[in-house]
Amino acid sequence: MSGGFDPALLAVLVCPVTRTPLRHEPAAGLLISDAAGLAYPIVAGVPVLLVEAARPLPPRSDPA
Predict the structure, then answer these.
(1) What is the DSSP string of the chain?
(2) With contact defined as beta carbons under 8 Å apart, do 8 and 20 qualify?
(3) How many Cα atoms are found within 13 Å in the side-chain-facing hemisphere of 39?
(4) How far is residue 21's CA from residue 13's CA, in Å, rounded to a whole number?
(5) For the whole model, what pTM was predicted?
(6) What count of other Cβ atoms lies within 10 Å of the Cβ of residue 6?
(7) Which of 6, 33, 50, 57 can pair with 15 through a Cys bridge, CB separation 3.0 to 4.6 Å?
(8) What is the pLDDT of residues 17-28, one digit of tens each?
(9) Measured in whole angstroms, how far is the alpha carbon of residue 47 from the centre of its chain?
């Protein structure tokens, strides 16, 4: 496992909104959907892939 989350599980999970792969942020305990701009929590090792449980990602600032 990587950071308490099974990488094999991460390989098959997708964002329920966009159906795109997720990336794991172990320090925050989140699965990130860059395509949807959402962060899904991992609670006691279980990903909660409900849109209602996700929080929006802060807007990205482009380096100028």
Answers:
(1) -BTTB-HHHHHH-B-TTT--B-EEETTTTEEEETTTTEEEEEETTEE---GGG-EEPPPP----
(2) no
(3) 14
(4) 7
(5) 0.84
(6) 13
(7) 33
(8) 999 999 999 999
(9) 8
